Amino acid sequence: MKRAILGSLVLFLGSALLGCAPAISPRVQAQTDHHLQFPDIQAHPTKYQGKLVILGGEVANAKTAPDGGTLIMVNEKELDAELRPVQGNVYGGTFYVKSKQWLEPDRYMRDRKITVAGFVTSPEGRTPVIEAKRIHLWEHPYHVTAVPKSWFRDDPEMKTWFASPYFDPAHKGQF
What we know:
Low-confidence stretches: 14-19
CATH superfamily of the largest domain: Nucleic acid-binding proteins
Strand content: 25-35%
Oligomer: single chain
Mean pLDDT: 78
Number of strands: 5
Distance between the termini: 54 Å
Number of helices: 5
Number of domains: 2
């Protein structure tokens, strides 16, 4: 009995600690150049080739690359202490994230927050490209807006039909 309780406690504490894991591992964070900021990379991308950086923002577009990997266009945003892109409409510019692995483009949909650790590589035009070492895709912020009354014509029973879990917030009220 004591062994079962102890095993359950260890399992619970282990899973709780995994939930607190950072977006980018401390080992990778220690290897990055903390003084290098996105405006520097954007101004002189070839100068910083090979540097390991951590950048983040909101996904603008994701597509499968010709080599079978994935190319993600990201609108850069400042990162907070947890390396999460901050809220707001201020963007620093655009950069590409190149992953050698195929990543499902449907998961990397527009406006998803993303944090990337990777190496600065040769730019595409004037847009910096980051070769991904680690990618952290933050949970999707479902914004369920109020359903227009015209959808349920003031019928209280219909109002609950359009509420969660039946209403798909990914469509944001548009079908």
